[in-house]
Amino acid sequence: MAGVAVAVVAVSTSAILVDLSDAPSLVKACYRVLFMTGLVAPFAVRERDQFATISGSDWLLVTASGALLAGHFAAWFASIEYTSIAASTTLVQTQPAFVAVGAWLLLDERVTSRVAGGILVAISGSVLLSAGDFLGGTTVGSNPSLGNGLAVLGAASAAGYVLAGRSVRQRLSLGPYVLVVYGVCAATLFAAALALGLPLANYPAHEWGLFVAMAVGPGLLGHTVVNWALKYVESSIVSVSLLGEPVGSALLALAIFGEVPGEFTILGGAVILLGIAVTATDRAS
Questions:
Q1: Which of 73, 75, 112, 281 is the most exposed place for a label (fewest CB within 10 A)?
Q2: What are the extents of the domains in the chain?
């Protein structure tokens, strides 16, 4: 559980670091994942013999997983530019609901009434969170509707990443798995940045520092530690623990930026977290 606690604290800094950077959102994602790939490479090299055992179908799944992870980072990083950090981090945590639906549709996994109820509660919270844009509540961000939509897209992409890589992870050790996934993700993001003509160089030193911090903090100590912890801790416990990310991010945003979440964001976020908690703890009940 100590590893999970470290991961939750680490991922809570992600939205703050992204918001502190003035680089284009896609460029931030590019370098975060590139540096993450470099950090895990030494661990993967120790188990390089496993790469020869990956089947053709598994290579397709790992490639799809990396591409979907790229979609997650691209959409979520962009969402932070348009909506509040509290709303963005809460909506991107609807991922477990998408995973439950995807597992039902694609993997023929049974959805219990509790899971279905939790998903409906989470969706209701998402609607409530966005209601301030239409009912005159206090909102934060230049275009909250767009930002909220991008955060939900980021959640759906992250769910696809989890579903695509679930079976492969059972046959492949952590190091080789994340190296391939992060490598595909980085290549996809850089291809998109080049296609859009975004500048990839000539950033000041503090920007490079933020790129590295994104990779080391929420990347290596966050998501990679989560992948490691899943071998030792029940996935339901890990999922519920990660619900602390929106709370941690919102508190940091308040302390650093003075960003006070609107009333609909607070209420809707609480409902979303309740729905995800119900969904994620179904296995443990």
A1: 112
A2: 2-280
